[in-house]
Amino acid sequence: MADARPNVLLIHGHDTGRYLGCYGVDVGTPNIDALAADGAVFDRHFASAPQCSPSRGSLMTGRMPHVNGLMGLAHGNWELHDDERILPHYLGDAGYETHLFGLQHITQDTDRLEYDHVHSEGNLYPGVSPAVHQANRARNVASVVASYLDADAYTDPFFASIGFFECHRVEEENGRFGFDAGYYDADDPDDVRPLPYLPDRRGIRHDLGEMRGMIVAIDEAIGTILEALVSAGIEDETLVIVTTEHGIAFPRAKGTCYDAGIEAALVMRYPGVVDGGERYDELVSNVDVLPTILELAGVDVPDGLAGRSFAALVADEYGTYDERDRIFAEMTWHDTYNPIRAIRTGRYKYVRRFWPLPTVYLPADVFASESGREVREAVATPARQYEELYDLRDAPQEDDNVVYEPRYRDVRLDLSERLHEWMVATDDPLLDGPVVPGDYEEIQSWPHR
């Protein structure tokens, strides 16, 4: 085991998926790529949910959204259960000094997170207004982190949650949602590689070109933080994790349980402990990140988590890794009721829907984007099927639903049963019927007499 407890930097961004150079995308992310070359990259890391607060809640609790209570957006009257414990609680109890830099978006009450130090303002609602969220821009958050490290004011060991606003869409003057090209340098749409799961259309290329400016901003910010670690002389004793919450804000990605919606980057470096230059193809969920951090930090992993530590996967000294054969994902509320539960194995994806909606749900910011305009007539009208099954070997883009094909009958029944057993074991409220919205009490308090 490591001789001393590491400092821990958990760096996370919005709506970024795996749209990074180290995942084979044609975008310049030299700082993240260098971190990946020195550390570990997880090629099949998935989020518990294809949306912000529920996914972040799982990252910070090691538990699924319908278990920890955060089944919708934190600014939409959803909250973690009162007794829910999060990563800074566990590390704080173990003697870590805990810090919050930038965005968090798992509660509207930052005080309940109990960080020792909160360094940035405006971290309650990621929203859409560029002016409101200036403090959470990657460049500004990284500057605060670097200044703090340069000041040598921290106490070892410390934990820092570092959240960036990028790559969240913002509302433009024309009412559409883009990536704030006036603030970031956009790429020429003609130079952008199309997405494999969407048609190659001008509006989609336009949005990708804009988003890439935000990707570059994230990478530069991470470079600033990594340089500050070197200057502070603590690079070798710091566990750095770069992750993302869910897929990019494009149709068939954010807001869906297709792989493009729940895929998330995960890169980690801990010199001398985590094997450097390795890529892992094992299934990993973001509920696994918390127990892994705790084990690497020498902190007991609590019972009752959905996650399992993968410390033994990245470092032989931690024993034998208990590999996953499945991961689960879910969605309940976003800007509308969209209840979905999904199970993914190495080869198959089974999706169960619980409410009549169009074939592909488009979150409001995606619907009102150039990309959304290109496809919404095709996907926003037909009624969805309640069951979907994809053979990811033959249809990696999940565009061939084989749920009713006779040769997949046994697979369908097996995955459907396993998904139901998981819902029963975790006391999923969907089993009792529709889940009321987070502001249900306010609705019920209508003064009708």
From TrEMBL:
Keyword Mitochondrion (UniProt): no
GO molecular function: arylsulfatase activity
Keywords, comma-separated and alphabetical: Hydrolase
InterPro entries cross-referenced by the UniProt entry: Alkaline_phosphatase_core_sf (IPR017850), Sulfatase (IPR050738), Sulfatase_N (IPR000917)
Sulfatase N-terminal domain sequence ranges: 6-299
Family: Belongs to the sulfatase family.
Name recorded for this polypeptide: N-sulfoglucosamine sulfohydrolase
Organism name: Natronococcus jeotgali DSM 18795
